[in-house]
Write a structure and sequence with these properties.
The complex is a heterodimer of chains A (119) and B (221). With 119 residues, chain A is α/β, with parallel strands linked by helices. Chain A has 5 helices and 5 strands. Chain B starts with a strand and ends with a strand. Chain B has a 3-stranded parallel beta sheet, with helices on one face. Classes of the chains: A alpha/beta (119), B alpha/beta (221). Chain A: It holds the Pfam family STAS.
């Protein structure tokens, strides 16, 4: 008997989701799609993806970890900016930044601001 | 329904627009139905017009634009309702070429919302003339701030609008939600009673600096 079950599937991100990924919930949608496939290995094709936000990158990495017992997930054709974002987010998960930059906002009364700038 | 005349900004600076916005809402009760009169406005930027659009949509308030000198501009940017679908967005852009409409992002729309957001960002980049590095510079703050709306504001609707001023050579993008605000967020999630000012400071201090390569960025809502 020939086993005709496919072992591999390619999912094109721009077609399934959008060319710019910014929110976590769209990654949840992607996870549902992946879970429905009957293959062991899935390529997530990032061709023509123009941007992935920090949140979406984090959600993608968490999804890959969650599914690793059941599916092998690979990110392919990933543009350089997307690769960099995934790497930064992944690095931050392993070793989070200890030193944060200084931020010293000046508080000003709104009416003083208007007087100062619009006089 | 109380009538609110939106005062004309003193000049075209962002602070002047902020002052006009502040004076518009200073006496309004929270979520009150209002009737906005735009007859005094002969020029607006996103900072002034988008919060008014968001308020009208959130409270089902009204507006009067028939006697406004900028009536045709307001119609081209789909003020006050905005567009909440890809087809409407494309229709408006097709009709009004260089004008990007006010875009309404609804959380439940899922991938359609993501595509609309992408379309908005792409149109902005196209308006800029595809300058190198512009895509990340445009997409990053839009993505961060829109995510903040759906993750923190407890509102499922966000509003975005952008305008490029070629003679002044700057891009103005505004992102608005009618959510609970920082003070309410700290009270509900951490039991902290903070004034609006202290809540904003606390949020900015807690979220300061997310380093991407050599560029420091701060995500704020």
């Amino acid at each position: 008997m020939i086993n005709t079950k496919k072992s591999h599937k390619n999912l094109i991100i721009t077609r399934l989701l959008a060319p710019i990924l910014s929110s976590r919930d769209v990654v949840d949608i992607l996870e549902k799609i992946i879970k429905k496939t009957d293959v062991k290995s899935v390529d997530l094709d990032f061709s023509n993806v123009k941007f992935v936000s920090r949140s979406a990158a984090h959600a993608l990495l968490l999804m890959k970890e969650r599914l690793q017992a059941k599916k092998d997930i690979f990110f392919i054709n990933t543009p350089e900016d997307v690769v960099n974002m995934l790497r930064v987010v992944a690095a931050n998960r392993i070793v989070s930044k200890k030193q944060k930059p200084e931020f010293n906002p000046r508080k000003i009364d709104i009416n003083s601001l208007f007087k100062e700038v619009l006089a | 329904m109380e009538k609110i005349i939106i005062p004309k900004p003193k000049n075209d600076s962002l602070v002047a627009q902020l002052e006009s916005l502040y004076k518009t809402f200073i006496n309004a009760q929270s979520k009150e139905n209002l009737n906005f009169d735009l007859s005094l406005l002969d020029w607006v930027c996103p900072l002034l017009i988008l919060p008014v659009s968001a308020y009208i949509n959130n409270t089902r308030s009204n507006c009067e634009i028939n006697y406004s000198p900028i009536k045709s501009y307001l119609e081209r940017i789909s003020f006050p309702e905005g567009v909440d679908s890809i087809s409407l967005f494309q229709q408006q852009v097709q009709k009004h070429k260089s004008f990007i409409p006010i875009s309404v992002l609804r959380k439940e729309a899922g991938t359609s919302r993501e595509k609309l957001e992408a379309l908005f960002a792409e149109k902005i980049c196209e308006t800029l003339g595809n300058v190198s590095g512009a895509q990340n510079a445009v997409c990053y703050p839009i993505a961060e701030l829109v995510t903040n709306i759906f993750e923190h504001s407890k509102k499922d609707v966000g509003f975005i609008f952008g305008q490029f001023y070629p003679t002044k050579n700057y891009l103005d993008i505004c992102i608005v939600d009618c959510g609970r605000g920082f003070a309410a967020m700290y009270k509900e999630e951490k039991g902290l009673k903070l004034s609006d000012i202290d809540a904003i400071s606390e949020f900015l201090l807690a979220r300061r600096g997310y380093r991407i390569q050599d560029t420091e960025t701060i995500g704020i809502a």
